[in-house]
Amino acid sequence: MKKIIFSALIAFLFVFNAQAQDINTETTNDYSKWQARFRVIAVIPSPGDNLDGADVDISTSFVPELDFTYFFTKNIAAELILATTKHDVEVGNQFDSADLGHVWLLPPTLNLQYHFYAGDFKPYLGAGINYTIFYGIDAGDVVGMDYENSFGFSFQAGVDYNINDKLFLNLDIKQLLLSTDVDVDTGEGVLPVEVDINPLVIGVGVGMKL
Questions:
Q1: What does the alpha-carbon distance between residue 51 and residue 45 come to, in Å, rounded to a whole number?
Q2: pLDDT tens digits, residue range 139-191?
């Protein structure tokens, strides 16, 4: 389902890019250097199979998010995304499961974007990197959990819709490719595990040209 949503939005952006070739008659200097957005985002991890015979389940989180965008040119911009999320973690199979507590993620993400113009619509595509910091760890049913901070990649597609000269609405979808090494202290030894998180981030919000 997530792949279908992401593919549909990318197709939507290409349609508007084709329209923009005919619609865009604005001068190259007619843009704001800075803009900021406030979104509400859903962070949906896709951990998959991380342990032999068992699956790691990481909960979805809904949080506010703030981002700032700087335009180098009318089309090329860099966006810094700031948010933090809390996720519950479980591991199990069809017969049993164990509570691995919860962990907070702070994943500042920097994307390089290309913006298209089609009337009041401004679709964009982006890609970049993020560095995820794990903190506020609760170990749940085990003695201890240690998550390693890690780098990941970000892919992005979205669209702004102008309300007026200053304000606009925003829809944004990002896919983060993110994994971390986790040491699970079971009380009988430390079990090293590589956990794939790979969250899909879907956000809606409002922005302002500064």
A1: 16
A2: 888 888 999 999 999 999 999 999 999 999 999 999 999 999 888 887 888 88
Going across the sheet that includes 144-147, the strands are: 144-147, 179-185, 190-196
C-beta atoms surrounding 124 within 10 Å? 23
Three-state helix/strand/coil letters over 36-92: EEEEEEEEECCCCEEECCEEEEECCEEEEEEEEEEECCCCEEEEEEECCEEEEEEEE
DSSP state of 28: T
CB 182, CB 198: distance < 8 Å: no
At the top level of CATH, the class of 2-23+37-209 is mainly beta
> What was the pLDDT predicted at 39?
97
Which candidate, 32, 29, 25, 12, places its Cα nearest to that of 167?
Answer: 32
Interval 75-103 mean pLDDT: 87
Which is it for the CA torsion 54, 177, 191, 186, positive or negative?
Answer: negative
How far apart CA 36 and CA 32 sit, in angstroms, is: 11
What pLDDT does residue 94 have?
60
Domain ranges of the chain: 2-23+37-209
Distance of alpha carbon 192 from alpha carbon 186, whole angstroms: 11
Give kind and range of the element (H or E) at residue 70: strand 61-71
Task: State the sign of the Cα–Cα–Cα–Cα dihedral 109, 184, 100, 102.
Answer: negative
CA 37 to centroid of chain Cα atoms = 14
